[in-house]
Amino acid sequence: MNASQQRASDLNKIASHRFDLVVIGGGITGAGVALDAASRGLDVLVIERNDFASGTSSKSTKLIHGGLRYLKNLEIGLVREVGQERAVVHELAPHLVRPEKMLLPLVEGGSLGKLSTSMALWVYDFLADVEGDDKRVMLSKEETADYEPLLRDDILKGGGFYAEYRTDDARLTIENIKTAVAHGATALNYVEAVDFTYDEAEKINGVVMHDRHTDARITVSTEHVISCTGPWVDDLRKVDKSMTNRGVFLSKGVHIVVARERLPLQHAVYFDVSDGRMLFAIPRLRCTYIGTTDTPYKGDPDAIPTYLEDVQYLLDGTNAIFPDVNLVVEDVESSWAGVRPLIYEQGKSAGEMSRKDEIFESKSGLLSIAGGKLTGYRKMAERVVDRVGKQMREDGEKLKDTHTKEIELTGGPFKDFEEVLNYEKTVANHLLAASLAPDRAGYLVANYGKQSPEIIDASVLRAEGTDVARLACAEAAFCIEKEFALYPIDWVERRSGRLYFDMPSIEPVLEEVVAVFASAYDYDEATRIAEMDKVRAAISWVSEFRPEPVAVA
Questions:
Q1: Which end of the chain, C or N, has fewer beta carbons within 10 A?
Q2: Based on the domain organization, do 106 and 190 belong to the same domain?
Q3: Dihedral sign (CA 17, 19, 25, 29)
Q4: Beta bridge partners of 290
Q5: 74 in a domain, yes or no?
Q6: Phi then psi for 153, rounded to 5 degrees?
Q7: How would residue 115 be classed by pLDDT, with cut points 50, 70 and 90?
Q8: 263 and 204 housed in the same domain
Q9: What CATH number does residue 362 fall under?
Q10: Do residue 442 and residue 530 come from a single domain?
Q11: pTM
């Protein structure tokens, strides 16, 4: 059964099936909830109105981190939980969640002095149970400059090294979805929840859905519903007529991407900027990315623009700490803008609002979860599925305890990160044997882990096209068959990350990759051209910047 047939089969199944739980929202929270619930034995359906990870879950800073800056706001519990979760998530997918030493330069006029930084990093290590070589190290001015020669010398006072983890947020989401399906869940992207049905006691007993791929309308029966819809969580609460004054506040975060040679950092750096905030600059493959902003957002969460002012803010902050690079707007190859769905707190700025998650339960039984951080997705899922367990106990049923801490994600298993690095060498040799470029090994293993050989072997069977195109087409075909990719943009943006981190590689393979989708989903010529145009429009959206419109009073 090919991907198109499997999707049609799943749509037929859900129309006549009663689920234990419908999860609305296919970002990292919904993916984590689906895995947690399915692994506890529940019959789960997870749906997403666009592609999986198409919202906030592909627009983060792409770090699994404890949130050092939240110590300033005294969010001790949050720092402890997500700090400890870093190591857990790393162990579940070490190919995807990779150790990243973070350099914290101390500068004149910065937000932290040497003593306060040392204490903060010590507390950070203590709360997060950091051990061994990952513990913080304080550096002199000379040592800091040796580690990162591009830093501005006249204001540099010293620095600190501490441990974080780098990831691909969209890939982490996809692998959680795939692992949930492996545990019995059903997953459908491009399916939108538009309404609920209720029983005589006014409890939700079904979800009305619109399949945006086929334009079909389906009503699915269910015992329980969890909304993990991020920026749209209040919209569904309004549909349920359970919206209260306490809702979400959207904060916009922008990141920009430049070529590695334009900002050739030796390490990831977390640095002060003039307005009191801090920015990350993180090397990744052929690029370095910089972020993030933190400003209120009241526009459309489906189309969040990166304005020229956003770009200039990030460039100015970067040039101030790395003065010799002289980055300009024309250096920016790509960008992404997302919104953080924070729990609204009156009188606080976006940067001051807590990143803690919160669960809302309506009289109809709808559970909605909002807030939180990428790093804490597994614990968020555990908490909200525990609330389903509470609802079940009220009906005389019992739910098993969570055990996602022991469930390795698809793409593994790997014993540790050292095994990942050794496996990259194995994949490089596999590529060489297939007459393909061995330097793609790091990319393939970081994205697909031990699924990489399947892609390489499939590329060998493709007779036509360049080596680069054959590998790209094999990768796209894998994502269609195994990763729910319905449209070429799903692969370009979220499965491969090329839209952000390897944009020059898209156009040379675009026609061949679209042909792979056309074959899988029976495109006519007009659809084929339209899908190519969508990818090119996405390239323009993330690489061309206009000034922010002036608000009319």
A1: C
A2: no
A3: negative
A4: 256, 281
A5: no
A6: -75, -40
A7: confident
A8: no
A9: 3.50.50.60
A10: yes
A11: 0.96
d(CA 252, CA 305): 10
For tokens 């559970």, what's the residue? 367
**Listed residues 289, 314, 343: the one ending a domain:** 343
Q: What is the CATH number of the domain that holds 333?
A: 3.30.9.10
Task: Tell me: do 335 and 429 sit in the same domain.
Answer: no
Cα–Cα distance list, 302 to 51, 225, 236, 339 (Å): 12, 23, 15, 10
**How far, in Å, CA of 410 to CA of 424, rounded?**
17
**pLDDT band per the 50, 70, 90 thresholds, residue 3:** confident
What backbone phi and psi angles, to 5 degrees, belong to 282? -130, 115
Q: How far apart are CA 152 and CA 213, in angstroms?
A: 52
Question: Is 89 among the domain residues?
Answer: no
Same structural domain, 532 and 422? yes
One-letter amino acid identity for 387? R
Total domains in the fold of the chain? 3
Cα distances from 395 to residues 390, 391, 517, 533, in angstroms, run 9, 7, 46, 52
525 lies in the same domain as 430: yes
Residues 335 and 400 grouped into a single domain: no
Task: For residue 320, tell me if it sits in a domain.
Answer: yes
C-beta separation of 220 from 204 below 8 A: no
CA distances from 338 to 16, 61, 259, 360 (A): 36, 10, 21, 23
Overall size of the chain counted in residues: 553
What DSSP string runs through 215-283? Answer: TEEEEEEEEEEEE--GGGHHHHHHHTT---S--EEEEEEEEEEEEGGGS--SSEEEEE-TTS-EEEEEE
Residues 314 and 438: their CA atoms lie apart, in Å, by 34
CB-based contacts of 269, cutoff 8 Å, min separation 6 = 102, 103, 104, 105, 148, 151, 280, 281, 282, 321
DSSP H or E segment with residue 290: strand 287-291
* End residue of a domain, out of 289, 318, 343: 343
pLDDT digits (tens, 9 = 90+) for 233-249: 999 999 999 987 678 99
Q: How far is the C-alpha of 477 from the C-alpha of 488, rounded, in Å? A: 10
Does 93 map to a domain? no
- Point out which residues pair with 156 in neighbouring strands: 107
Place of tokens 């300009």: 328
DSSP state string for 291-327: E---EE--S-TTS----HHHHHHHHHHHHHHSTTT--
**354 falls in which pLDDT band (50, 70, 90)?**
low
Instruction: Output the pLDDT for position 344.
Output: 76
Residues 392 and 423 in one domain: no
Angle between helices 467-482 and 507-521 (to 10 degrees): 40
In the block, which residue shows the tokens 């002012």?
309
- φ/ψ (deg, to 5) at 509: -115, 0
Amino acid, single-letter form, for residue 305: P
Range of the domain at 303: 99-165+250-343
DSSP E strands, 68-183: 98-107, 137-139, 156-166
pLDDT tier for residue 479 given thresholds of 50, 70 and 90: very high
